[in-house]
């Protein structure tokens, strides 16, 4: 067995490395955010015509006033500086299509719903995914294993708008077990959360299964078994704890999946969350709202990725040095 | 051995018939043939391949199978259920859903394949340069890739399509802007590993040019992971396109991809559910087959990568 090095011995070194790593990642994140913010700005400016042209027959004087109000009459570099300056003060601007509605208020109103759905979906995916993966690994090459793999491949392959609309049609329209749209009671969460968690569940099940199979044949499991520990203790304390580590690496992609998923699911189930706002901002070509929501999503995704990176950097050396947490 | 001196009979010619030559029992198998044999063993992967071929054939030839086409409106027969006349029914404008579904499958496949192709070209060139030259060049390009990669790709794609009007060309373009990075990193890793091998040194010693070493020695040996990555790119591009369609940023009417068809059908799903059925099944089936085939291909090409 690999020698057990107490955590505190290399604690300081790991800690220092970790801090350096996190600082580097955060700086990198800010840089990418800046690139994205600038890119959004110039992309939106590159659109031919001005955003008020589509409105019906606005007199030139009013158009002029609108242009002034949104600062579009200024030279480009001045607009850019104002934009970046506002961003630094967390001011994302005002909607171009809805009067007096700031991007901030849109986020405040919509984010609560999206957040609830997202967190629930993440919890469901982790619990169900890990359980499925566990069952599959314990029944390796038997029916349940094949069944889980099948479900996992299906989950990765069926687009979530198909899942969401199928669920809505079968359980909402035909069987009438659930409301078709809206988010009024706890039952209304069931279908959207299932639709949202379908893909991540499948992915986590696959991850858990393969890493569980790897862990189960590791030496320290044999040691634990030869010490006469009960099967359940080995499974939970030794195997599962190590097997779910790779799931940590999936936090970033999972957040991305849940966000794209929420855009679809909220639209289909008529939930007034951020995803729905995002879709309508695109269909309305409400440029400030598109820019603001894009940046907001980007920040969330980057934070999720940061968590993944840090967790991975934290988890990795421990695996290498001690050969598993439950090893002694 | 030093006490032995070589005598003349040591150089006598051996009688070749005396010793049997090394016996070749089986014919020699190249790595590609080996992979193909392994792939053929994998029944699911082969079935997926056949299904994909059938889907592609239908996408090409469906237009000759019915008297209808994908864009002619027929307001006297709107929203028909599937029947002997219109095999998959008709949509809200009376267009034949059989034609539209297969046309959509064709467009979705094309988007996936073109996106994979652009990723391949860009990824191999840039990844090859990064891996082969290393040093400063690699560092700068790698930094650039990291920044590009850290920007959520779906958001970039959405922004680009909002600005450029949606069409198949712009969708592929937008998907490729961030899509090539993954491929570049894979090629880079492979090239870095391979470039220090003896056969590359040997090639360089006899004066082979850089491009020859690149395309004759390095890339062919990195082909396994490259092919697997392509196979996995296609379904994700198909999904990305469908997602864009869902936002109203997909291929524009009268042309349609599977994503646009599903999005159109969604609006009337409670009344005409069958309009949803066939595109939804087809897109799921296509992605399923690509995923299974990609898995099988990975197992066949690189047994070490097997999960």
Helix/strand layout:
The complex is a heterodimer of chains A (328) and B (307).
Chain A (H helix, E strand, L loop, with lengths): L10 H36 L13 H10 L6 H13 L14 H36 L4 H15 L2 H15 L15 H27 L2 H8 L4 H13 L1 H4 L2 H19 L4 H10 L3 H36 L6
Chain B lengths: L30 H11 L1 H19 L35 H37 L1 H16 L2 H11 L4 H27 L3 H8 L4 H12 L1 H24 L11 H10 L6 H28 L6
Helix pairs in contact in B: 1-11, 2-3, 2-11, 3-4, 3-6, 3-9, 3-10, 3-11, 5-6, 6-9, 7-8, 9-10, 9-11, 10-11
Please provide a written account of the structure:
The complex is a heterodimer of chains A (328) and B (307). Chain A is 74% helix and 0% strand. Chain A has 328 residues and is mostly helical. In chain A, helix 1 packs antiparallel against helix 13. Chain A contains 13 helices and no strands. Chain A is flat. With 307 residues, chain B is mainly α. In chain B, helix 5 runs antiparallel to helix 6. The longest helix of chain B is centred in the middle third of the chain and has 37 residues, at 97-133. The model of chain B has no long low-confidence stretch (mean pLDDT 84). The chains are: A mainly alpha (328), B mainly alpha (307).
Report how far the terminal alpha carbons of chain A are from each other: 9 Å
Major sheet attributes of chain B: none
- Shape, per Cα inertia axes of chain A: flat
Gyration radius of chain A, rounded: 25 Å
Strand content of chain B: under 5%
What share of the residues of chain A does DSSP label as strand, in percent?
Answer: under 5%
- Counted beta strands of chain B: 0
List low-pLDDT spans of chain B: none
Helix content of chain B: 55-70%
Structural class of chain B: mainly alpha
Largest beta-sheet characterization of chain A: none
- Most residues in contact: chain pair: A-B, 45 and 38 residues
Q: Give average pLDDT of chain B, whole number.
A: 84
* Number of helices in the DSSP assignment of chain B: 11
Q: For this entry, what is the oligomeric state of its chains? A: heterodimer
| Outline type of chain B | elongated
Topology, number of strands of chain A: 0
In round numbers, the mean pLDDT of chain A is 80
């Amino acid at each position: 067995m690999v020698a057990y090095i107490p955590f505190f011995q290399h604690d300081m070194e790991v800690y220092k490395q970790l801090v350096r790593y996190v600082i580097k990642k955060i700086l990198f994140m800010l840089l990418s955010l800046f690139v994205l913010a600038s890119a959004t700005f110039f992309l939106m400016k590159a659109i031919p015509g001005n955003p008020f042209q589509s409105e019906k027959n606005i007199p030139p004087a009013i158009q002029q006033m609108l242009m002034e109000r949104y600062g579009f009459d200024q030279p480009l570099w001045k607009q850019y500086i104002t934009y970046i300056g506002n961003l630094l003060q967390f001011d994302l601007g005002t909607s171009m299509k809805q009067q007096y509605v700031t991007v901030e208020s849109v986020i405040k109103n919509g984010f609560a719903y999206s957040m609830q759905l997202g967190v629930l979906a993440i919890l469901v995916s982790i619990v169900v995914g890990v359980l499925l993966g566990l069952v599959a690994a314990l029944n390796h090459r038997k029916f349940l294993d094949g069944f889980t793999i099948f479900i996992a491949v299906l989950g990765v392959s069926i687009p979530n708008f198909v899942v969401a609309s199928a669920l809505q049609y079968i359980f909402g329209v035909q069987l009438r077990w659930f409301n078709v749209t809206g988010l009024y009671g706890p039952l209304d969460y069931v279908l959207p959360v299932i639709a949202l968690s379908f893909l991540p569940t499948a992915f986590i099940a696959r991850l858990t299964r393969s890493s569980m199979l790897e862990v189960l044949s590791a030496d320290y499991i044999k040691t634990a078994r030869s010490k006469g520990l009960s099967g359940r203790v080995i499974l939970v304390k030794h195997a599962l704890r190590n097997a779910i580590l790779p799931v940590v690496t999936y936090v970033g992609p999972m957040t991305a999946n849940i966000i794209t998923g929420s855009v679809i699911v909220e639209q289909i189930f008529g939930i007034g969350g951020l995803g729905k706002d995002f879709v309508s901002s695109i269909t309305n070509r409400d440029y400030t709202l598109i820019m603001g929501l894009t940046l907001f999503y980007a920040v969330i995704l980057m934070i999720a990725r940061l968590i993944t990176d840090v967790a991975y950097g934290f988890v990795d050396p421990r695996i290498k040095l001690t050969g598993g947490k439950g090893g002694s | 051995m030093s006490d032995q001196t070589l005598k003349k009979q040591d150089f006598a010619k051996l009688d070749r018939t005396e010793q049997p030559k090394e016996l070749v029992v089986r014919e020699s198998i190249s790595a590609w043939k080996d992979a193909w044999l392994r792939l053929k063993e994998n029944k699911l992967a082969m079935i997926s391949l056949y299904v994909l071929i059938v889907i592609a054939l239908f996408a090409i030839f469906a237009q000759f199978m019915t008297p209808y086409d994908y864009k002619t409106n027929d307001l006297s027969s709107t929203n028909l259920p599937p029947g002997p006349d219109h095999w998959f029914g008709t949509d809200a404008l009376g267009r034949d859903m059989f034609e539209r579904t297969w046309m959509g499958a064709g467009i979705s496949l094309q988007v996936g394949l073109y996106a994979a192709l652009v990723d391949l070209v860009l990824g191999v060139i840039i990844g090859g340069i990064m891996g082969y030259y290393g040093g400063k060049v690699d560092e700068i390009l790698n930094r650039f890739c990291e920044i590009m990669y850290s920007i959520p790709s779906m958001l970039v794609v959405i922004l680009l399509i909002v600005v450029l009007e949606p069409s198949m060309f712009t969708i592929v373009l937008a998907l490729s802007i961030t899509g090539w990075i993954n491929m570049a990193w894979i090629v880079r890793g492979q090239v870095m590993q391979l470039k220090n091998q003896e056969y590359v040194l040997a090639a360089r010693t006899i004066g082979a040019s850089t491009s020859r070493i690149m395309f004759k020695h390095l890339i062919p040996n990195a082909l396994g992971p490259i092919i697997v990555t392509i196979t996995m790119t296609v379904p994700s591009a198909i999904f990305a396109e469908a997602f864009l369609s869902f936002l109203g940023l997909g291929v524009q009417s009268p042309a349609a991809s599977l994503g646009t068809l599903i999005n159109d059908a969604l609006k009337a799903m409670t009344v005409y559910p069958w309009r949803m059925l066939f595109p939804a099944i087809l897109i799921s089936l296509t992605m399923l087959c690509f995923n299974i085939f990609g898995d099988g291909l990975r197992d066949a090409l690189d047994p070490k990568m097997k999960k």
